[in-house]
Amino acid sequence: MGTPRLTAEPLRWLGAPAPGGLALPAARPNRVQLYAPRGVYVDDRAVVVADTGNHRILIWHGWPETDHQPADVVVGHADFEAEGPGLLHLPTGVAVVEGRLFVADAWHHRILIWDALPEKNGQPPDRVLGQPDLDSTEPNRGAEAGPLGFYWPYGFAYVNGWFYVADTGNRRVLGWRGLPDGHGPPDLVLGQPDMYSHAENRGRGVGADTFRWPHAVVGDGATLYVADAGNHRVLGFTPPPDADRPADLLLGQEGFDRAFELPHIPQGPRRLRFPYSAALCGEHLAVADTANNRVLLFPGPPREGMYPAATGVIGQSNFDDSGENRWQAVRRDTLCWPYGLWCHKNLLAVADSGNNRVLVWRLALS
After folding, report:
1. What pLDDT, in 10s, does the model give residues 68-119?
2. Which of 148, 185, 200, 355 is deepest in the core (most CB within 10 A)?
3. Superfamily grouping for domain 6-365
4. What is the pTM of this model?
5. Spatial contact of 321 and 289, defined as CB atoms under 8 Å apart
6. Closest to 175 (Cα-Cα) out of 152, 201, 205, 155
């Protein structure tokens, strides 16, 4: 018997409707419209979206029952019509961890934490990681790279008792045993020889232990996956590391020393171009193959090895095509620069950033 194929059916569309053809949904901030969302979180009680281009977080309490349903709460601004950087500047990763809302406030070089999912518009955060206080926003706390500061932290994850931050601008992943309090140094650095180095690919070229743009982290007790977008690959560490070491799994490239990217050719089921996110969906790893305008589904999920093939694709009708919205129209089953992913039970939420929307797909084995 072959590996069961994971299929996807579009279930819900959050954001404004598309006017037709390749015209994008409207993006002016209000309770419905999104502008280039880059992060999404879904559970049984809420949907949370990083409405990145509008520098805010939108929250739906309860499952949205209709397409284009208005959000219930906005944070980052006092009301739904405000725009521009304020509390938040290009927020990206979002998740609820042990009842707390975490937001990667990337261009303020910090992660903000609300002790409970906000119920009121404009609710301020309760604590911060990566800065000495809630008023500070300088890269690396206004100094050189070190153990307590961030430079463009685009993603984070809480995996098997560890809290990881994709510290993208410092070309590293930091890890803490347990949820950090903002004061203690991390217990782990991946991608650099120490807590003070920050060179791209360690300053010596792409390898099994280097990053260019580590952008998102996901995993379980068996494997830690890092979407290394700038090197057009995903690295897997099996088992999850407790010290810096080379990866055991490589997706998207034929060798650990490769960072190949060539647009406008048939892409196939193995190649990745700027994979900005990943999510574990049962026995599959979903990867946002962002510049190829698709999500690839790898069975297993893969733990070790090099250059495995995906068995499912979302957003394209086959593995060779890569056009934005298939160069046809903004439809329920097309994608344009899918950015953030989140899996919950049989649901896969996609921050379809180029289409100013979030799509939720129902997954099924066939």
Report:
1. 999 999 999 999 999 999 999 999 999 999 999 999 999 999 999 999 999 9
2. 355
3. TolB, C-terminal domain (2.120.10.30)
4. 0.97
5. no
6. 155
